[in-house]
Amino acid sequence: MTGPDKLTIRRPDDWHVHLRDGVMLKSVVAYTSRQFARAIVMPNLSPPVTDSAAAAAYRERILAALPEGSDFAPLMTCYLTDNTDADDLATGHAQGIFTAAKLYPANATTNSAHGVTDVVRLYPVLERMAEIGMPLLVHGEVTSPEIDVFDREAVFIERVLAPLVQQIPSLKLVFEHITTAQAVAFVDEAGDNVAATITPQHLLINRNAIFAGGLRPHAYCLPVAKREQHRLALRKAATSGSAKYFLGTDTAPHARERKEMDCGCAGIFNAPYALESYATVFEEEGALDKLEAFASENGPRFYGLPLNEGSVTLERRKVDVPASIATEAAELVPFHAGETIGWRFVG
Ligand code: NCD
Ligand code: ZN
Questions:
Q1: Protein residues with C-beta less than 5 angstroms from the ion ligand 2
Q2: Which fold has domain 6-345?
C-alpha cells in the first residue's frame, strides 16, 4: 500500500535543539530554521547559559547567525545549577527571555559538569517555577557510575522524577528525549502537566545500531538508544495521537573527529533531515495523519504558545543522504549518512 505523494502540515517547531555557538552556530542553525518556525534552544554551552543576561545575549547571537530573511524564533532556556537565582529566573520568564529551564543532573552529558547535584536542593526554585507556570525540561538519567548505562533513565524515574512530580504536582514538566518503555508508562500515567519529547533516532534505531559490524560513533547519543522493545514503545507513544508527546530532535552536532576518537562525544546531528526522519516513522506506523499534531500542535499547546501560521510540505521522493556535510566549522556526519530516505522536505 502506498500513501499520498505529498504531505502538507502546519509549520512545525523543534522542542529540543543544540545550536552551539560561534562558528558552529553559524554552520548549523540554518538546518533547523529551514524546517522549523521555533525551537527550544538548550543552554549547555561552555560555560552554560545560567542567567537571563547570558540567555538574552545568546539569543542575539542566534538571530545574527540566521540566514537573511528568516523569521525563526529561538526559545531560550536556563541551565539550572545548585546556585540558580529564582528571582532572575522568574524575571527572565516574565520578560520573555526564558521560555523554560533545563535540569541536567551533574555530569549526565556534554557540558553538564555544572548541573544539579541533588534535585531536592532545587525544590524551592522548582516550586517558584510551578507558581509562574514555567516549564521544567528534564534530562532524565541518573549519573551514579554503579548504575548500568542502559538503566539510567528507568532508575531516574524511580529515584528522582516520581518523587519530584509527587512533591510539586502542578509543575509543568517535559521529560526530554525519552528512550524507554518505562518513560512512556510514566508520562502516560502522569497528569496533563507532564509531557515528553521524542527524537527521530530513538524512533529509528535500537542499541544494536551502535555496534553494527563494529563501533558506530555516529549512532551514539545520550540517553543512549535502548533495546528494541523500548523503540517500539516510543513509536507507539509518538504515533498514538496523545497530546503528551511532541517533536524534539535533540540535534547535537559535533565535529566528525570529536566523535571518531578514543572518547567520542555523544550526540547525533539530525537537523538536516529531521522532518523526513519523523515522516518515515509515522508512515511505517500507518499514522501519517498523526504527524501534524506531534510536530506542530502538541508542543505549542503544552507550552501555552500560539500554533504557527503557514505550512510546510514533504514530497515522496528518494533522497540520498550524504556521508558527511562540510561546514565552515567542521565536517559533520548527519543522521542517515549514506542511506536513502523516502521523503524530501520541499519547504
Ligand atoms: C547533547 C550534546 O551534545 O550537547 N548530546 C546528546 O547526545 N544528546 C547533550 C544532551 O542533550 O544530552
Ligand atoms: Zn539534548
A1: 250
A2: TIM Barrel (3.20.20)
